[in-house]
Design brief:
homodimer, 244 residues, alpha+beta, Jelly Rolls, 2 domains, two-stranded antiparallel ribbon, 8 strands, 47% helix, globular, DNA-binding
Chain lengths: 244, 244
DNA sequence: CGGTACGTTGAGTCATATCAACCATAGTGG
DNA sequence: CCACTATGGTTGATATGACTCAACGTACCG
């Protein structure tokens, strides 16, 4: 065996992040662990890399651990009756996914797919459970996280049930601005297909296309393929009727 | 002062339930507490009674504790942009409400209103937090509860986003059957206004009325004012496309 | 008896989904 | 190199589910 192929060289360059520095700089939930616990975590974790389109886990399966995102973007979605995806949330640096199924001890109710090439750590369930048992402050932070997500889910339910597609699309754009930010040219720092946008908003792809081009006519956004430039945040807020 | 009016007599008859028996028979989350903790809970709790229409708490407010339901039914809802209620969940015997805001340390994102006269205990936040800190098994159960609710919220989001009003109404009926059961004449053990049904499904009152009478024509249900008799569960399942 | 809340029905409108066609781009394989 | 295919984006035409508005009936309550 020889280890000097182009690919192997590349592999060797990869730097597996340490949990202590990562959790601090990403502000992940693990910053509430004791140094000993972080060390244990660092030992147990399994560092992995995925490319756009890869699937981290799929609904209906039993999950033996959860993922902590170090870089990249992942979409978490649920597949509806006719196979249409409903995007529930995104995960980026510092976020953890699949913890819901681990903690509720249920089968995964969502799937996770890579949107932007990512590096994640897989962490076995047992270690999470053991932290909860030995570190109450950490348990409380996890509860805080879960309950916060629950609040967001409640808002989402109300929005989808009551707002029009137009209002929701504007709101989703603002949400993306808030979550991923804009680059120095005001382009959204996340690139989604029109279909993916539709699967967040809960509408048809064609509707997203039509409404986006309306927003363009109204000088709210500029479109350059998948790159979306945000021109008028206030205008989008007005359309979306956000104030909760 | 004289204490022998009709009302006072009635008051005296009221039996304040003990947490240990109540938690066992209702299967509430408190059954995971130690005997000492249950005793502390029993001491700290504040027993209250509410009538239909009463409000337990309102969104936007800071909450100093949460509620454990002993009897009756409560609706938990969120008020949308135009004042329309979106019902998020119901609470009945053994359920706890408002724990989300307590644990996430956020303002209440929902309101709670009595649907069927109820008896509840109000429990100060501090005692819940202290249990989490001293009883890891209990913390884990709370996490399980929150994560389970999160899973239900995800399903709800997908349904509202993808299913038709007709499908959702059928699904809501089945959900109510499952949650509240049927009496010996197959009538639903919960009585809601058409508007409330609409506020679960996420539609207009008139749409609920029209669809219910369609279901009646199709011999799926029988209607007697607010009492709904379920005739054909299989038929409703077929309409609702449930299999998750 | 008037008032209020709820339920019902009809008619008209509109937002959105659906269906279909077409274009652009990139990757594939012969 | 070209044909082939797949994927995603766009636009137009059409259909329709669901909302809105309005009127009216019903029941209960003080």
């Amino acid at each position: 065996m020889h280890y000097n192929s182009r690919d192997d060289m590349k592999q060797q360059e990869i730097h597996v992040p340490l949990c202590d520095s990562c959790s601090l700089e990403s502000g992940s939930i693990f910053k509430y662990l004791t140094p000993d616990e972080v060390e244990a975590l660092n030992f147990e974790k399994d560092f992995r890399q995925y490319k756009r389109g890869d699937i981290l886990y799929q609904e209906g399966n039993r999950i033996s651990g959860f993922f902590c995102v170090n870089s990249g973007i992942i979409k978490v979605f649920k597949t509806g009756f006719d196979g249409k995806e409903q995007i529930i949330r995104f995960a980026k640096k510092g976020d953890i996914i699949a913890y819901r199924s681990v903690l509720s001890n249920e089968l995964a109710c969502t799937s996770a797919k890579v949107i932007e090439d990512c590096q994640v750590c897989f962490i076995p369930s047992e270690i999470l459970i053991s932290f909860i048992k030995t570190n109450p402050a950490y348990a409380l932070e996890l509860l805080k996280l879960a309950c916060h997500e629950l609040g967001e889910a409640n808002s989402f339910i109300t929005d989808i049930a009551q707002k029009t597609v137009r209002e929701r699309l504007a709101e989703v754009l603002l949400f993306l601005v808030n979550d991923f930010g804009l680059d120095d040219e005001y382009f959204l720092n996340i690139s989604l297909t029109r279909e993916e946008m539709a699967n967040i908003v809960g509408t048809a792809t064609e509707s997203v296309i039509r409404l986006l081009s309306e927003f363009k006519s109204d000088k709210l956004v500029e479109l350059n393929g998948r790159k979306i430039k945000i021109l008028n945040t206030k205008g989008l807020e007005k359309i979306s009727n956000v104030f909760n």
